[in-house]
């Protein structure tokens, strides 16, 4: 990526602060690429704005993108400016990602009050990349009042989203095994609200009853919050208005019990951990000899990691 002169950086910052969408897109690209100027922009802009951040997760095919599309409509009815980060997993082999979630949100592409950005997880061990949190900070600084972060809902991403979002929405369907898989994966403990989407299919009531039974055994949530369950049919919009009101009720609960600041601190902790993880991934790719010594039993993983840390402190 070409270097930006300081004057160009100041110009980008000025245009960003004036609400230039192209400046936002450029800033997001710099941050996602890990460019030093992207980090400089983040330092200058971080902490501005206070968006309501909603994480949307669930198994592939649950209808998350269509449901998010409907939730965007509800937010726009209330006059909110909406940002969307759609995170797709990167291939561990090619590094590529499909980034196709925008297809189901095309109705908003001409709405200046909606901005949708697709991101790749970039090998973040099946979860969210630190760049996702950085992008979230930029959208907040740009003035979006509600931000949806949609994950593909596999691997670590379901747990990660709870550390990044203020409110976590888990989307299930009446498809066989969905509720059981949710119990086994532990995501019951991180969801603040549940949507049983495609409720017009057989088995919807059974899923709701299973969820209610499981929630009765779940540990109490901060402030005494009890996760509600909403039946929805995203394709037609049925139940979406009630679900949106539930999202708003959870945000008001966080405000009333002083829980938002803790969420912001956890988000920053996650971002720092992600930077360390990415640093380690890059360093081990370059340290083939050191990795070979671990495989041969000549070094323990801890000893190898310490050597990498010491090598970082002084040139090799």
Would you tell me the overall average pLDDT?
Answer: 83
Largest sheet: 7 strands, parallel
Biggest β-sheet: strands ordered side by side in the sheet:
3-2-4-1-5-6-7
State the helical fraction: 40-55%
CATH class of the largest domain: Alpha Beta
Strand percent estimate: 5-15%
CATH architecture of the largest domain: 3-Layer(aba) Sandwich
Radius of gyration over alpha carbons?
A: 21 Å
The helix count comes to 12
Quickly give the structural class: alpha/beta
Number of strands: 7
Distance between the termini: 26 Å
Poorly predicted runs are: 90-100, 123-127
Q: Which geometry do the CA atoms define?
A: globular
Q: What pattern of helices and strands is seen along the backbone?
A: HHHEHEEHEHEHEHEHHHH
Could you describe the 3D structure shown?
This protein is an alpha/beta fold and 316 residues long. The protein has three domains: 1-45, Single alpha-helices involved in coiled-coils or other helix-helix interfaces, CATH 1.20.5; 48-257, 3-Layer(aba) Sandwich (Rossmann fold); 268-313, no CATH class. Helices cover 49% and strands 13% of the residues. It is built from twelve helices and seven strands. The chain has a seven-stranded parallel beta sheet with strand order 3-2-4-1-5-6-7, with helices on both faces. Helix 8 (204-217) links the parallel strand 6 (193-196) and strand 7 (229-231). The protein is globular, with a radius of gyration of 21 Å. The two termini are 26 Å apart. One of its GO terms (molecular function) is GTPase activity. It holds the Pfam family MeaB. This is LAO/AO transport system ATPase. It comes from Thermus oshimai JL-2. Belongs to the SIMIBI class G3E GTPase family. ArgK/MeaB subfamily.
């Amino acid at each position: 990526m070409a270097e930006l002169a300081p004057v160009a950086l100041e110009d980008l910052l000025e245009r960003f602060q004036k609400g230039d969408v192209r400046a936002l897109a450029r800033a997001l690209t710099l941050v996602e690429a890990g460019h030093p100027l992207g980090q400089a922009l983040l330092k200058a802009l971080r902490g501005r704005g206070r968006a309501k951040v909603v994480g949307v997760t669930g198994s592939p095919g649950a209808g998350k993108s269509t449901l998010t599309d409907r939730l965007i409509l509800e937010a726009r009815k209330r006059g909110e400016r909406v940002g969307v980060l759609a995170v797709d997993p990167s291939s561990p082999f090619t590094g590529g990602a499909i980034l196709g979630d925008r297809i189901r949100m095309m109705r908003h592409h001409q709405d200046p009050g909606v901005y949708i950005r697709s991101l790749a997880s970039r090998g973040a061990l099946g979860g969210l990349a630190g760049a996702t949190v950085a992008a979230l900070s930029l959208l907040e600084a740009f003035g979006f009042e509600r931000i949806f972060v949609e994950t593909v809902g596999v691997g670590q991403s379901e747990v990660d989203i709870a550390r990044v979002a203020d409110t976590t929405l888990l989307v299930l369907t009446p498809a066989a095994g969905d509720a059981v898989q949710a119990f086994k994966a532990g995501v019951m403990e991180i969801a603040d609200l549940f949507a049983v989407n495609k409720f017009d299919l057989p088995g919807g009531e059974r899923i709701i009853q299973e969820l209610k039974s499981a929630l009765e055994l779940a540990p109490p949530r901060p402030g005494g919050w009890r996760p509600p369950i909403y039946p929805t049919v995203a394709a037609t919009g049925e139940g979406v208005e009630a679900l949106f009101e539930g999202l708003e009720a959870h945000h008001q609960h966080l405000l009333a019990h002083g829980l938002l600041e803790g969420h912001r601190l956890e988000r920053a902790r996650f971002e720092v951990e992600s930077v360390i993880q990415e640093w380690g991934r890059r360093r081990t790719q370059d340290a083939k000899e050191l990795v070979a010594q671990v495989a041969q039993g000549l070094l323990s993983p801890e000893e190898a990691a310490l050597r990498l840390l010491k090598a970082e402190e002084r040139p090799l």
